[in-house]
Amino acid sequence: MAHIDTALLSKYDIAAPRYTSYPTVPYWTAEAPDPALWLERVAQAAQTDRVISLYIHLPFCESLCTYCGCNKHITKNHRVESPYVQSLLQEWAMYRRVLPANVQLGEVHLGGGTPTFFSPENLRSLLEGIFKTIPPAPNAEFSFEAHPWSASEEHLATLADLGFRRISVGVQDFDEDLMQLVNRRQTIASIEQVTEKARALGFTSVNYDLIYGLPKQTPEHIERDAEYLARLLPDRIAFYSYAHVPWLKRSQTAYSEADLPAGAAKRALYESGRSLLEDLGYRDIGMDHFALPHDSLYQAFENGSMHRNFMGYTTTQTRLMIGLGASSIGDTWDAFAQTEKTFTAYQEAISAGRLPLIRGHFLSEEDQLLRRHILNLMTRYETSWETAHPALDAAIARLEPMLADGLVQLSPMRVQVTAQGQAFLRNVCMAFDAHYWRRQPQGQLFSRAV
Ligand SMILES: C[S@@+](CC[C@H](N)C(=O)[O-])C[C@H]1O[C@@H](n2cnc3c(N)ncnc32)[C@H](O)[C@@H]1O
Q1: What's the rounded Cα separation, in Å, for the pair 371 and 351?
Q2: FRET label pair with 254: which of 97, 213, 320, 345, CA 20 to 30 Å apart?
């Protein structure tokens, strides 16, 4: 196992964003952006790019996993499905009206909540309703998040039939007792079945989400996880650091903070996971992400074409991402906008014919410049520039202590993250976060960097 420098850990284990966007959401300045202005930006971006990404948020779950940091609504009432699908189709129609006739779909991701909460029939009517209005681009990638407990063979067959070839299975940890502690209903057999059935039905890329730092999780759990991984060999693994944000997610107070591995103990879980994954042939491709060398995300990392957006790391370079559904975020590259968080408020607005935007941000030139460098660091562990800019000079100055600690190599117009610095990638990116340094948070906004 790699040596863990505890002094560095305590120095850099501060609250830090994950940079799925820049500026990060707490620094967005547009309250309730004008839908007409937002749609104008969407239309302009589609004119330039012609290929778009679609994120569809399906917020329902049957039961509450207490660790969960996502936007969801817990219910066992499946009558919510149809009206929600209708709202999604109405929202899509508002976007489709402003898109050029020859636009194509490069990427679709169904996220949650639990997309497999919805019946296969309802998923089909949602997707067919969209697909009849926009053709797929060549090499389009369609993916979805599957909860092993609810992803049935019918779900998989329906989505395979609709062109889905990527599945992301929420595993978190294979240990059933550990999962019970966080109120997650799942069995090892259900993970094995969903994996085998997906492959038999033609899914070419299986991703597992794993989390380190869960309550009472130990290095022995991670070692046992690696034994299952050795057998099931998912193509990609997201090995997430548990984000503890009890001020935002009350369910995280269901367990004692004393049971949460922190600091060096948490980092030890990551280091042991990483070396076990490397032994299995996985390669580190970015913050918390691993892939087998045959996987397209690994190849994109290798040839420098990997991209990152609100969906995480992707191989598709599309800059325009339209978000559909409650709490979803859209990105035109020069603007962001987010919809109402509760599904009831979202549906009410949509049925009144209104796009329910609750916040957003129109990026300045400086924002776009810094966004590019943060994206480079997140996807390639390095960035460089040819024209000096005061915001970049300021970033270099903020990185001096990390140079002294061996986390980065610096020249006046280039930053390279060292092997040791990769564990502190969020901290390196923060040096470029001009919004953060102009107005440092008074309260708690972000989870810790380690
Ligand atoms: C919307 S959830 C997964 C979909 C599905 N509901 C499931 O549970 O399998 C997406 C992923 O976010 C990750 N996640 C959720 N809460 C997290 C937290 N507090 N810290 C780190 N990762 C988290 C989990 O790995 C999860 O699989």
Answers
A1: 35
A2: 345
Q: From residue 100, how far is each of 42, 221, 334, 337 by CA, in Å?
A: 10, 51, 19, 20
Which atom of ligand 1 is closest in space to residue 67's alpha carbon?
Answer: 19
Give percent helix, percent strand, percent coil of the chain, each to the nearest 5. 40, 20, 35
In sequence order, which residues have a C-beta less than 8 Å from that of residue 302 and are 6 or more positions away?
none
Residues β-bridged to residue 145: 168
Ligand 1 center from residue 447 Cα (angstroms): 15
70 lines ligand 1 (CB under 6 A): yes
Give the number of the atom of ligand 1 that is nearest the alpha carbon of residue 68.
16
d(CA 46, ligand 1 centre) in Å: 31
Minimum mean pLDDT range among 169-183, 397-411, 427-441: 427-441
What is the reported pTM?
A: 0.93
**What does DSSP assign to residue 227?**
H
Domain ranges of the chain: 24-324, 365-441
Name the architecture of domain 365-441.
Orthogonal Bundle (1.10)
For ligand 1, the distance from its centroid to the CA atom of residue 311, given in whole angstroms, is: 12
